[in-house]
Specification:
The protein is of the alpha+beta class. The protein has four domains: 115 residues, Barwin-like endoglucanases (Beta Barrel); 105 residues, 3-Layer(aba) Sandwich (Rossmann fold), CATH 3.40.50; 128 residues, ATP-grasp fold, B domain (D-amino Acid Aminotransferase, Chain A, domain 1); 80 residues, no CATH class. The chain contains twelve helices and 29 strands. The strands form six sheets. An eight-stranded mixed beta sheet has the order 4-3-8-7-1-6-2-5, with helices on both faces. The longest helix has 18 residues. The radius of gyration is 27 Å and the shape is elongated. The relative contact order is 0.12. Keywords: ATP-binding, Nucleotide-binding. InterPro entries: ATP-grasp (IPR011761), YheC/D (IPR026838). This is ATP-grasp domain-containing protein. It comes from Paludifilum halophilum.
Length: 477
């Protein structure tokens, strides 16, 4: 069994001897422990027979005939990992990572994926250094009947459409709950997971109520969770009697959209919510008037009602902490980043989409004053890791990345506000002007190598399939 990092180059058939379709150096053949007879070659779900011609040099270059490259659906010159598995007599190229996205993004010629373009280009950069082939595709581009898809690859500094086999790993970055819940997409994902055994991670959005009901069962998590219930009009009065401030949040909301804050003050109820221009404030003299207003605003949507907390502020502005936890190259949860998000003075939420700002979590913690105890940055990180481990133990589905939102009250107590399975790639990230892959991208690609079996710590286990000769001498499956 041998591994090597190789450069794949596609050239015309006329440069190959009869029947041959792959050229590589003797030194690379030796490094991969390749036999002299034909072998299978696999890329993603595509498989064909390789007839190898050795040459006398020491380069890591592998030349494929255009016909073989077409059958494997490899496009352009790529740096990939190569591995030979003797029991199955098979060379594997890869891994092939597919990022699943919806197409309704506002892109242009220079940024075809809109605000996600920079993140995806960082993925391309990191994949190139680690020998991973990347394709970006949408649900309608999956063709299960041909075990292939038509996605976007990055070539010559631009995105181009290209055919690809089904990937080794799929990273779900669908940003629309409505699209993700479509029957056709769920059918495709189910087939990819169970029929083709392709890992699909971060496979679904999270529901605030379901996450709370799951975590509250754990004794260690229970103390960190604000009192939370599915919203019913009858719950408003008792919650306001217990807490001076409460929040109403869409069960399936994101980016701070739809959040309503209600504060009890001097016999009145102050109702606040964010709009593009800032915070809208309505003052009601009775619970009845408040409920009447809420019934119109909440119509058609599911909400939770949640205990408000006496939180610390920075310059009088609300602050929370987004801790990004990801699985690493060994499949272990690790903290990738921690930032403090400070709300815009005109909004009640801290999301960048609502005009908030971000800073390093340690800097924000240093400015915070509490009445008693203040947790350290390490405490923040360890708390997030504990949450990720508990969530994984209790939840169904495959998750390798979580955005964990924590807040700090004036007594120095940490609270868990939200778990996000589709953490933003455009907000909540402190980036540099240069196009250097951010740590979260590196960890994403490392996990791809791990889960696809390409990590050096993992051995391949494939069913043996021996090529057979036909009358023309060509090997067939």
């Amino acid at each position: 069994m041998g591994y090597a990092r190789v450069v794949i180059q596609i050239i015309s058939e006329r440069y190959f001897p009869p029947q041959a379709n792959m050229i590589m150096s003797q030194s690379l053949i030796k490094r991969l422990h390749l036999p002299q007879h034909p072998v299978w070659v696999t890329f993603g779900s595509a498989t064909d027979t390789a007839f190898i011609v050795p040459i006398q040099n020491r380069t890591p270059l592998i030349r494929l005939s255009t016909r073989l490259a077409s059958r494997l659906k490899i496009s352009g010159q790529k740096t990939l990992n190569a591995h030979y598995d003797p029991p199955s007599r098979r060379i594997h190229f890869g891994p092939l990572l597919g990022i699943l996205m919806n197409r309704d993004v506002e892109g242009n010629e220079t940024q075809p994926f809109g605000a996600m373009s920079r993140f995806l280009e960082e993925c391309v950069q990191c994949c190139s250094t680690k020998g991973v082939y990347l394709t970006v595709f949408s649900p309608e581009q999956i063709d299960l009947s041909s075990k292939s898809l038509r996605g976007w690859i990055y070539e010559n500094k631009k995105w181009v459409l290209s055919d690809a086999p089904l990937p080794d790993v799929i990273y779900n970055r669908i940003t629309s709950r409505r699209l993700e819940n479509r029957t056709e997409l769920q059918r495709k994902l189910d087939t990819l997971r169970h029929t083709y055994r392709i890992p699909v991670f971060n496979e679904t959005f999270l529901n605030k109520q379901q996450v709370h009901d799951m975590l509250v069962k754990d004794e260690g998590m229970r103390r960190m969770l604000p009192e939370t219930h599915a919203y019913q009009a009858a719950r408003l009065k008792p919650m306001l009697e217990r807490y001076r401030t409460i929040y109403l949040k869409p069960t399936n909301g994101s980016l701070g959209q739809g959040i309503i804050r209600i504060t009890r003050q001097e016999g009145h109820l102050i109702c606040q919510y964010s709009e593009a221009a800032g915070t809208v404030t309505r003052i009601f003299s009775s619970l009845k008037d408040t409920l009447r207003r809420l019934s119109r605003r909440l119509a058609g949507s599911r909400y939770i009602i949640q205990q408000g907390l006496d939180l610390v502020t920075v310059d009088g502005r609300p602050v929370d902490f987004r801790v990004l936890v990801q699985k690493d190259g060994k499949g272990k949860w690790s903290v990738t980043s921690a930032v403090g998000r400070i709300a815009n003075s005109q909004h009640i939420v801290s999301n960048l989409a609502r005009g908030g700002t971000i800073r390093k979590a340690g800097e924000v913690l240093a400015e915070i004053r509490t009445f008693t105890y203040k947790p350290s940055l390490d405490k923040l990180r360890q708390t997030a890791l504990a949450i990720a481990h508990t969530f994984e133990r209790l939840a169904q589905g495959h998750f390798a990345e979580l955005g964990i939102d924590l807040v700090l009250d004036r007594r120095g107590r940490l609270w868990l506000i939200e778990l996000n399975s589709k953490p933003s790639k455009t907000d909540d990230t402190i980036t540099t002007p240069t196009l250097t892959a951010r740590p979260s991208v590196t960890r994403l690609i490392d996990y791809t190598l791990h889960i696809s079996g390409w990590s050096p710590h993992i051995r391949f286990h494939r069913r043996k399939m021996t090529p057979k000769s036909n009358r023309s001498g060509r090997k067939t499956r």
